[in-house]
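Hey, resending since the last one bounced:
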Amino acid sequence: MSLFSFKIVDTIAKNGSFAKAADALHMTPSAVSHAVNKLEHEFKLQLFVRNRHGASLTRDGERLLPYIRTILQYHELLHLEVAQIHGSITGSVRLGTFNSVTVSWLPRLLKTFRSQYPEIDISIHQGSYMDIAAWLENDEIDLAFVINHTAPKNVDVIPLHQDPLVCITPPDYTPPNPSYVTPKDISRMNLILQHDGYNAEILDFLAQHHIKVKASFHIETTAAMVALVSSGFGFGIVSKMDSFTPISDVHIYPIHPPAFRVVSLACVQHSFPAPATVTLRNMILDYTQQTNIQNIPERP
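The structure tokens again:
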């Protein structure tokens, strides 16, 4: 039994495949299989069910996996504590993010962080709101930016930024009030929506105002929405952060009364969080406060 055997089990569980785990660990599939067989023999338990689609944990494997991951985490913490004693913080952090945060905030934030902590490795995982929630729930990332109520219950959520929603319209559209649109105006529009997982804040807004939508287009990116709106195929609702897309062929109107999404920082709860994770978390909080991104008061 060895720590690296536990690392192999954890990697197989994350990837759902012996072959993918072998690639990730730079091993041969036979070496991975041998290590698992040896561990299963020592435990006198079967940890994985193997089939043509990959590998999945048995019920016994699912019971043992949290303990295996705890052992791996404590092993990493031991080495990180030694590094701190020697005056340096090392390690790795997995950060989940969605498109508008990746474009608007991350470049400067990461540049600042890496200049201060060059020995901490950050891996970026970008996806939909639903992707990020699943990664947090499965402990596949350590920190993440989330919106509204999309974070799972096993994380600590710190609200950072209240981001207004806006309406984008074709250039020939003029609302009844020329300076803004209302929920009543929006209820009469043919809306272009993004796929589920990318539009939780929009669905919240529509539900709050009892607006029923039969959308002809269900697209993935804000850029695609803008292109369709500019060609006269409908209207869109996006966050103000998302309106960085070139907008020369559309108009942007604020919504009255104002509607918002809340961008928060979600942190996986651990009894002993890794110093690298705590360092990035604190830096994000300091950075968003100093740059006035943080427009929601911190909790006491």
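The chain has three domains: 3-82, 89-160+262-290, 162-260.

Sorry for the duplicate.
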